[in-house]
Write a structure and sequence with these properties.
Blueprint: H1 3-7, H2 11-23, H3 26-33, H4 37-51, E1 56-59, E2 62-65, H5 67-87, E3 101-106, H6 114-125, E4 130-135, H7 140-146, E5 151-156, E6 164-170, E7 174-179, H8 192-195, E8 200-203, H9 210-221, E9 228-232, H10 235-244, E10 248-252, E11 263-267, E12 278-284, H11 291-308
Parallel strand pairs: 3-4, 3-5, 8-9, 8-10
Antiparallel strand pairs: 1-2, 5-12, 6-12, 7-10, 7-11
Pfam families: HTH_1, LysR_substrate
Organism: Vibrio ouci
InterPro entries: LysR-type_TF (IPR050389), LysR_HTH_N (IPR000847), LysR_subst-bd (IPR005119), WH-like_DNA-bd_sf (IPR036388), WH_DNA-bd_sf (IPR036390)
Length: about 300
Amino acid sequence: MTNNELENIDFNSLKLLKILGEERSTKRASERLYLTQSGVSKSLKKLRAQVNDPLFIREGNFLIPTEKCDRLLAKLPAIMEALDELYNKSNTFIPSEHTGDITIHINAALSRPLMSLLFTKLNEAAPKATITLHSWTTDSEYKLKQGIVDLGINFYPLDVSKEITQTQIANPKYFLCCHESLPLLSNPKPSINDITQYPFVLTQMPDFNREQNLLFNAFSEADRAPRIIVRSDKIDVCIDTTRQIPSLLIINQMTKPALTDDLRIIDISHIDEIHPSSVGILRSYRTVESPYYQWLNQVVIDCIKQLVR
């Protein structure tokens, strides 16, 4: 199917295809579109006839896209953006009138209190929108390219597709965090040897925690391998573990406001081998000029800078 053929399909059918591609379920698609499940099935039948392809093959409770459907889904973000510009001749975005979804994926190590701050700011500006703030996962890059996720927040730079643009936003400081009773606090400038006497708690998503990788590289170079007692993508679990067990948690400047009163910060800036990563925003290159994405980008930048100033 050519781009022209795809553009000839009505907007509602394109939206249906996009939602089905994201949800892989007529039931969940019907819930997002506020339609009956039979209504979604009927519309899908019509769409199949239009493109002369089954589009999705049912396997158990899931819909698996056909090869042709995958090609269509890859083209949809650009087509939907073109239609948005066609129907919005002023090419402006008014947050207070936005009724769609706002979806952001955030590295777990950066999520608290950034998620709460983002929700507050986005809800204030766009009260009619549905806001989804989700941890960065291994499929976040794919969802950014497909337009399923509007924007990602992660360490900078990442090794991602050229279809994704990355913008460096901030250079937060990094610290170790521990309970106020930990003896290590009596040492104003602990060495790597001092630090690795204690077990570590890690907030971790696969391949995306650069500041932790860099610190552990420094440990390896010093021939010190600390014991890891917890790995979790839930920052609350990591904080609670650090409060209960004598251990160290690697945090960044953006996370400091989330710490409880019984936790303390250990400065590690004197350890020359550690060079923490920056924080950046990731977007599909197709969205760079969109007024909606420019607005969302600025909201995120303001929130991040509020936490690192």
